[in-house]
Amino acid sequence: MAKDLLFEIGLEEVPARFLRAAMEQLEDKTVKWLEASRVAYGEVQSYATPRRLAVMVKDVADKQTDVSEEVKGPSRKIAQDENGNWSKAALGFARSQGVDPDSFTFKELGGVEYIYVTKNSTGVQTSEILADGLNGILTSMTFPKNMRWGSHEFKFVRPIKWLVALFGSDVIPMEITGVKTGNVTRGHRFLGGEAVIPEASAYADVLRGQHVIVDVKERQDMIVSQIQALAEEKGWNIAVKEDLLEEVLFLVETPTALYGSFDPSFLKIPQDVLITSMREHQRYFPVLDKQGQLLPYFVTVRSGDSRSLDVIAKGNEKVLRARLSDAKFFYEEDQKLQIKEALSKLESIVFHEELGTIGDKVRRIRRIADSLAAKLAVPAETADSVSRAADICKFDLVTQMVYEFPELQGVMGEDYARKAGEKESVAKAVFEHYQPRFAGDAVPASLEGSIVSIADKIDTIAGCFSIGIIPTGSQDPYALRRQAQGIVQIVLEHKFPVTLSDIFGIALSIHGEMRALKRSEDEIRKDLFEFFSLRVKKLLSEEQRYDVVDAVISAGFDHVVSVVSRGHALMGAVNGDFDFKATVESFNRVSNLAAKAGKVAVNPGLFAESQENKLHEAWLAVREPYQEAMKASNGERALELLSSLKEPITGFFDSVMVMAEDEAVKANRLALLSGIDSDLKRFADFSKLVW
Question: Where are the domains of the chain?
Answer without folding.
Answer: 3-63+125-208, 67-121, 216-334, 349-542, 579-688
